Amino acid sequence: MTATQTPAAGLRHLRGTPDFRRITLALFASGLATFTTLYCVQALLPALSTQFGLTPAESSLAVSFGTSGLAVGIIPLTALSGVIGRTRMMALSLFAAAALGIVQSVSPAFTVLLALRALQGFALAGLQATAMSYLAEEIDRRSLGYAMGLYIAGNGIGGMAGRLIAGLVVDLANWRWALAVVGLVALLCAVVFRVSIVESAHFVPAPPRFRQLAGAVGAAFTDSGLLRLFACGFLLMSSFVTVYNYLGFRLLSPPFALAPIAVGMIFVVYLAGSVSSTLAGRLVDALGRPRMLPVTAAITLAGVALMLSPDIVVVVIGLVVTTAGFFAAHSVASGWVGPRAATLRVQGPSVYLCCYYLGSSVGGSVGGLAYGAGGWSGVSLYVGALVLGALALALTLRKLAQATPR
């Protein structure tokens, strides 16, 4: 079966088939490109602070503008994908984001960099708005959890690769070269995606109906289960981005006083997110999401507590646990939204992603105020409160288990 052929009518791709492997490779590459470009600047925040004379909170706007653009673009590009097709939208998004990433390396001022980051985030929204819908349409329900886990795993490795590459290059050269190299990596991922992706077999093009879309988005907020999942995504992402935004500043300062290259190497722990999201996908297929979500949130909270230690080894262990818990929780929550929203016939995945990336934009910036006011202790209190909120919501979601598709 070639990339332009489709499975038999009514059939969807099962784990183990050649096209399932092609789809998961393509979506893995897309997740890799998305998180590589979106969060590489976290490793560059100290360098940007020095270059442009910014506070940590001000430099973190380079992250917030990118995720804000993504949040703004999610819903309109969801509607556009219904016209031009899922795979075309995802490919256009990836190539545009890669090009904008390369252009960022020649930004003459911080304000120009912020504008380009916002445009890049908007471009990436086309991928994020479409990927989960594509998987839900093309993958058999019995294999959806595993496929979603692999997609999130690509996000995890992308987050690690972006921070690691940027951290290494900025230590050897400067932040401009770091952005250029990351942009080229994203371009390679876009090529892999376009070559590997299997064309949609269950997508039916339709003209944009903005009134119906607005109604479907509004209806999503009338379901208490979806509301709690949206809030979980917001809170978890707020906490996670805050940790990675400001950890570099902590580790570069006494008592750790690590070299920039050593701080960059610590981002290898992002691989824990790839492992945990894949494992969570398998466990969801076997155990169900109502059992898994509270456990993953509790793991995240334990990691945050460990990172309070003044011992660098314990801090790294805590970062591993936090990263693993977050990606597992995101994999479970995002995979839960799609089936529930489809059953209720509302627009769920795009709203979840909008809330998720608003968490990165708003929550991450507020975390800078916590860091400025109380250092890492302030960050830990702030992040701990956010994760506790997500854990409480996850526990209440268990009561909706019978009404929620697994």
From TrEMBL:
Q: What is its main location?
A: membrane
One of this protein's Pfam families, by short name? Answer: MFS_1
Tell where it localizes: Cell membrane
The protein's UniProt keywords, in alphabetical order, are: Cell membrane, Membrane, Transmembrane, Transmembrane helix, Transport
Q: Which residues cross the membrane?
A: 23-45, 65-84, 91-112, 118-136, 148-169, 175-193, 213-237, 257-280, 292-309, 315-338, 350-373, 379-397
In the bilayer, the protein is annotated as: Multi-pass membrane protein
Report domain Major facilitator superfamily (MFS) profile positions. 23-402
Q: Report if keyword Nucleus is assigned.
A: no
What CDD domains does the entry give? Answer: MFS_NepI_like
SUPFAM superfamilies to which the protein is assigned, alphabetical: MFS general substrate transporter
Family according to the record = Belongs to the major facilitator superfamily.
Instruction: Output this protein's name.
Output: MFS transporter
What is the originating organism of this protein? Amycolatopsis pigmentata
